[in-house]
Write a structure and sequence with these properties.
Keywords: 4Fe-4S, Iron, Iron-sulfur, Metal-binding. This protein has about 800 residues and is α/β, with parallel strands linked by helices. The chain has three domains: about 100-170 and about 370-575, Rossmann fold, CATH 3.40.50; about 175-365 and about 595-630, 3-Layer(aba) Sandwich (Dimethylsulfoxide Reductase, domain 2), CATH 3.40.228; about 650-765, Barwin-like endoglucanases (Beta Barrel). About 30% of the residues lie in helices and about 15% in strands. The strands form six sheets. A seven-stranded mixed β-sheet has the order 6-5-17-16-15-7-8, with helices on both faces. It has a six-stranded mixed β-sheet with strand order 23-25-24-27-22-26. It has a five-stranded parallel β-sheet with strand order 11-10-9-13-14. The relative contact order is 0.15. The chain binds ligand MGD (2 copies), iron/sulfur cluster and molybdenum atom (MO).
């Protein structure tokens, strides 16, 4: 059934034609020597190793996880699992943190919970008393449950009262949220995975879905291999597996997305590929969009993007002549300097053609992490819970009533702080207490030398909750051992609004605890309370947190009131909003072309896409969107760093199919780790030749921030572009030693995808680079021996 899903990444094809349901195929992996008869119980849940959220069951034997299998009835995967889903969980049973650690004499030493929490609370209380809430920051994740996020949001925003809350979602999906807010008035994925089953064309903008949501790609492949395949357009500087299947591949220079998008819009308007009735009835801003794209011809964009004008025309023609397009947009667009504008243009091309809210016509502004969506919903980042607008006093009052706190406690006097600013304030000294939960910034943030300096500096007290020792825990003052995934019960929501319940399958190791319990312990020790002196948060268990969250979501776009643990256990994934009037959930949003842009309902009044300046309520009202979507873009600007004579190449970064981020889990899964055991750097063949570099040679890559060394893979990356995976830490190997401290002005998402670098050969290596041969990292020429074996 899954003999070697390392080599056979997507598994066997089960083709399906347009309009027909995606066939089931149940994937399973059990540890060697364990048969189904040996299993004590199968526990329901979903995979937590990407935003797809594939429904599965965990096999438990003797209190340990021994296997997994997909849930055939789940709407997301119809039984399938990808390599990370099948093999990744094994890493959770190795090398775990089992006790709290505190720093003593410069070293981390084991301690008990009481001592560790005592230290946390002592520092937190004294700073709060002397400097107030602005001394506190919470930097969380896209990998917790909604119960955990909501508990933390109430502690931070209702109890402590700090605006300094953000997640690594800033690095990941901040642009998805921002683009939704700018165009539709609030966050919320309009479309559904089932649109893949109905579309006649797929556009992938900066999205290597083949490696990053393997089961979604399997769904697309099953359409591509059927009798009526959709056309496919791929925008990516590398020849990914997606690009190999594309009708048109646009390998644009990294950092030039907006130029391409402005040209695509130009073409749609110039050829009259516009649904004028839809545009008139359901949008505002067309005249301005038309004006801003008058001069942005394919020839103009071709110069900037470095692809032939005829290919841009061909892509536009495909969009203009299709009835049902699904577009996805991901990190190639989001981790860039004009990210929100480029992502808004993806929304715009759908609005121009009236392609939204019906089967097969949809936008998927992707998430990456399994519960990035929940961080945004529950308000652990910039948003207030339930997509409430911090700039709307009624929304703030709502929350104050829900939490029984004075509205003045809830930070709403200015925009919430983004993670770039949080680290800057810690660097400058105004933040003296930073709690990092479920993220590893010492590998994942840009410009790592600076991040290490900030985290190790004495002035900021750093608490880290994680399941393992990581590059970040090593810089902390207190480390708290957390329960992971199937060691706890909780819900999370994938990229197409599908909510899953993970049920506890096994006990956490040693003294590790789930994050809800850790947060509540902190809140109680701090004596956080509501107006009447009752404990805040008012709950004690994840199940109660879920009920409290449901109440907070009532009447908001992400309404969870119709969901319960029982229902999720029975059905598997269900899409929000799920209410008494939509008890099965809701497949698509905005089917009637009415959007959340009413000024009293919207999550944000929007921004100037060029500068990030807030639009403000008065100017927002003057647009009179009132339920119509907002078409907006801005002029293309070059990235922060362009190649020059010292740093002549364009550096970009991303993922490989076999690893999850900083590899805390996947490096401990034997199959996955063997498939991609160590760092590499990808160069195009002409660049390698020019620099005298052969496959496997050790190269040094240098930017203005630092340098790294790794074996070179000569791959199908665009000429002039150097690609590196960001999974591997280490101060002489981590990709983020090289990246810039810079971000999109609206979403504040860091620019991980463009930096200027120089590459030089250091010497010969030991055979080919340790890069996969099965993916976008495949070598241009056959290797003497291949990895993975
Ligand atoms: N195997 C695996 N899967 C994952 C993850 C993982 O770590 N490993 N992480 C998950 C998470 S959190 C996320 S956010 C998603 C990310 O999913 P993706 O966005 O698909 O992943 P990336 O590899 O970061 O970037 C996608 C592509 O962008 C291209 N690119 C680089 N620069 C540019 C540019 O300027 N323009 C354009 N158009 N393209 C560019 C890269 O060549 C790359 O192929 O994956 C999720 N799934
Ligand atoms: N150069 C470059 N840098 C990037 C990117 C890129 O494309 N290029 N992508 C960015 C993106 S999109 C992302 S999402 C980030 C990811 O970056 P990180 O969030 O730093 O990466 P992870 O390895 O997923 O870190 C999550 C940590 O949380 C721990 N953890 C997992 N589950 C739990 C839990 O339930 N509770 C607790 N307390 N801990 C838990 C894990 O052990 C792990 O240490 O990286 C970003 N950085
Ligand atoms: S596609 Fe994502 S959610 Fe599904 S099995 Fe793979 S890693 Fe897990
Ligand atoms: Mo991400």
């Amino acid at each position: 059934m899954c003999s070697d899903r390392i080599m056979d990444i997507w598994g066997a094809r089960t083709p399906h034609t347009k309009g027909n349901p995606w066939p089931e195929r149940v994937d399973q992996f059990m540890l060697d020597g364990v048969g189904e008869a040996d299993v004590d119980k199968w526990v329901r849940g979903a995979c937590l190793l990407c935003s797809n959220g594939c429904g599965l069951e965990v096999a438990v034997r003797g209190g340990r996880m021994v296997g997994v299998r997909g849930r055939a009835e789940d709407r997301i995967n119809h039984g399938r699992l990808g390599p990370k889903g099948l093999y990744g969980w094994q890493g959770e049973q190795r090398d775990r943190l089992t006790t709290p650690l505190i720093r003593q004499g410069g070293r981390l030493v084991e301690t008990d919970w009481d001592t560790a929490m005592g230290k946390v609370v002592e520092r937190s209380r004294s700073l709060l008393d002397s400097k107030g809430p602005l001394s506190h920051a919470f930097y969380s994740s896209g990998q917790l449950t909604i119960e955990e996020y909501y508990t933390l949001a109430v502690i931070g925003k209702g109890g402590i009262g700090t605006p300094h809350m953000d997640g690594n979602t800033r690095l990941c999906t901040a642009t998805a949220a921002a683009a939704f807010q700018e165009t539709f008035g609030s966050d919320g994925q309009p479309s559904s995975y089932t649109d893949i089953d109905h579309c006649d064309t797929v556009f992938l903008f900066g999205h290597n879905v083949a490696e990053t949501q393997t089961v979604l790609w399997a769904r697309m492949l099953d359409r591509l291999d059927a009798a009526d395949p959709p056309r496919l357009v791929c925008v990516d500087p590398r020849r990914t597996k997606v690009a190999e299947r594309a009708t048109v591949h646009l390998p644009i220079r990294n950092g030039t997305n907006l130029a391409l998008m402005n040209a695509l819009v130009h073409e749609l308007i110039a050829h009259g590929w516009v649904d004028t009735d839809y545009v008139e009835a359901h949008t505002v801003g067309f005249e301005q969009l038309d004006q801003q794209t008058r001069e942005t011809t394919p020839e103009w964009a071709a110069e900037i993007c470095g692809v032939p004008a005829r290919d841009i025309r061909a892509a536009a023609e495909i969009f203009g002549s299709s009835d049902n397009v699904v577009s996805t947009c991901s990190m190639g667009f989001y981790q860039s300097h004009q990210a929100t504008a480029a992502a808004c243009q993806v929304n715009n091309i759908h609005l121009l053609r009236g392609m939204l809210g019906r089967p097969g016509a949809g936008i998927l502004q992707m998430n990456g992490q399994p519960s990035a969506q929940n961080n945004r919903e529950a308000g652990c980042g910039p948003a207030l819970p339930g997509f409430r607008n911090w700039d709307n006093p009624d929304h703030v009052r709502d929350l104050a009533e829900l939490w029984n706190v004075d509205p003045i406690v809830i930070p709403h006097w200015a925009a919430p702080t983004d993670s770039n600013a949080i680290f800057r304030y810690a660097e400058q000294g105004s933040i003296g207490f930073l709690w990092i939960v479920a993220t590893n910034p010492a590998v994942s943030m840009p410009d790592l030398a600076r991040i290490r300096r900030i985290l190790s500096d004495e002035q900021c007290f750093v608490v880290v909750s994680d399941g393992y020792r990581t590059e970040t825990t090593e810089l902390a003052d207190v480390v708290l051992p957390a329960a992971l995934w199937a060691e706890k019960t909780g819900t999370f929501t994938n990229v197409d609004r599908t909510v899953h319940l993970q049920e506890q399958a096994v006990e956490p190791p040693g003294e590790a605890r789930d994050d809800t319990r850790i947060f509540l312990d902190y809140a109680r020790r701090m004596g956080l309370s509501d107006k009447d002196g009752r404990p805040l948060p008012s709950w004690d268990t994840p199940a109660q947190a879920f009920d409290a969250w449901k109440a907070a979501s009532a009447g908001r776009p992400c309404d969870y009131t119709g969901l319960s643990y029982e229902l999720l256990h029975e059905v598997g994934g269900i899409q929000w909003p799920c209410t008494s009037t939509a008890p099965q959930g809701t497949e698509r949003l905005y089917v009637d072309g009415t959007f959340n842009t009413d000024p009293d309902a919207c999550e944000s009044f929007g921004h100037d896409l060029a500068t990030g300046a807030p639009v403000g309520r008065a100017a927002y009202m003057a647009q009179r969107a009132d339920g119509r979507a907002i078409l907006k873009t801005t002029a293309y600007d070059p990235p922060f760093e362009e190649p020059d004579s010292t740093y002549p190449l364009r550096f970009t970064t991303g993922r490989t199919v076999y690893h999850w981020h900083t590899r805390t889990k996947t490096s401990r899964s034997p199959q996955l780790n063997t498939a991609a055991p160590a760092m590499w750097v990808e160069l195009s063949e002409p660049d390698a030749e020019g620099l005298g570099i052969s496959e496997g040679d050790i190269v040094r890559v240098t930017s203005r921030r630092g340098s790294i060394q790794a074996p070179a893979r000569i791959s199908h990356t665009r000429e002039g572009v150097v690609f590196a995976p960001f999974h591997y830490g280490g101060s002489d190997t981590a990709a983020n030693e090289l990246t810039v401290t810079g971000w999109d002005p609206v979403s504040k998402q860091p620019e991980f995808k463009v930096a200027a670098v120089a590459v030089e050969r250091i010497g010969p290596g030991q055979g080919p680079a340790p890069a996969p041969t099965t993916t976008a990292s495949a070598p241009v020429r056959p290797l003497d021996h291949t990895t993975p074996k």
